[in-house]
Please model this.
Amino acid sequence: TAPEAGAAIHTDFQEKFIRADIINWQKLLEIGSWGKAKEIGAVKTVGKDYVMQDGDVVEFKV
Model:
């Protein structure tokens, strides 16, 4: 899950997980920037039950 993936970075990411913003790396590369991807709605916000997918680029909200 997203919180478990966050724990690989730091345990606080799992313990204090709020949500995560996710986009596939190929889609992000195609769009050109995180800001533009968010602006056009290509970044999705997910919760604690989200199962990380191969190729996900994630920004954790803790």
Notes: The helical segments are 2-7, 11-15, 25-31, 34-39. Residues 25-31 form the longest helix (7 residues).
